[in-house]
Design goal:
The chain is an alpha/beta fold. It contains four helices and ten strands. A five-stranded mixed β-barrel has the order 3-5-6-9-7.
Length: about 240
């Protein structure tokens, strides 16, 4: 018995069109996200190679997509600082050392990521090079404060009395209150320095573009599968018609 096309119901057609449209929209959204992540990674790479510009000359309304390479003069606050815990690199767990910097002529404080140090003990953190106490010029990428981390147990900073304080995330409002001073909206990722003893390989903690493309392929596959199933259900032998 030959196969022939059986006219689908309007409900089936609408369900198919809605599903395919949704799957395709999600697929194209993932492709756009992949493109955005590629631009972000390219911006970081370009910033590290760009000539350093004066931090004081940056506009107040800095574009989100811009990551300027800057220099700034001032002094560290050695009695303050934070340890950003649970930072994994190359399969090893460590911490990012976050220093507090006071730029000349400003009441705002600038967070400075000194780099990554392997280990999670107090001895490991103590092995980091000491901060200079005199005026210095620091240089690096002025980047957004990372928003990752698990927020549990309330504000852990207020419960600690010894510095540097341990934290799983950097919350600008909580840090500002902890320091009793306003903060700049971003932080400085210091340029690499072989003698620092710290790893400074700066890449944003984001989902890689390849994974977004993988998700896009999945959504487009769902759209194709919906079309295939629709065709199979409505292009069949006469005796395969559902009984009333």
């Amino acid at each position: 018995m030959s196969r022939r096309w059986h006219r689908p119901s309007w409900f089936a057609v609408l369900l198919l069109l809605g599903g395919v449209a949704a799957f395709c929209a999600l697929g194209f959204w993932q492709l756009r996200r992949a493109s955005e992540k590629e631009q972000l990674l390219a911006s970081y790479a370009a910033a590290a190679l760009a000539p350093a510009e004066d931090f004081g000359g940056l506009p107040d309304n800095l574009q989100d997509s811009r990551y300027p390479h800057v220099f700034i003069t001032g002094h560290y606050l050695p009695e303050r600082g934070y340890l950003l815990d649970a930072q994994v690199r190359d399969g090893r767990v460590g911490r990012n050392l976050i220093a507090v910097f006071a730029p000349n002529g400003s009441k705002q404080r600038l967070l400075v990521n000194r780099g990554w140090l392997a280990g999670t003990s107090a001895t490991d953190a103590a092995s980091a090079p000491a901060l200079p106490s005199d005026e210095v010029r620091v240089q690096g990428i002025y980047a957004p404060i990372p928003a990752g981390g698990l927020r549990v147990g309330g504000n852990a900073l207020a419960q600690q009395t010894q510095w540097p304080k341990l934290t799983l995330y950097l919350e600008p409002a909580a840090l500002s209150a902890d320091l009793d001073a306003p903060l700049y909206p971003r932080l400085l990722l210091l340029d690499a320095e072989p003698t620092s003893g710290l790893q400074r390989q700066w890449t944003p903690a984001i989902m890689p573009p390849e994974r977004h493309r993988g998700y896009a392929f999945q959504w487009f596959s769902f759209a194709f599968a919906a079309l295939a199933i629709f065709a199979i259900l409505h292009f069949r032998k006469d005796h395969e018609l559902k009984k009333p």
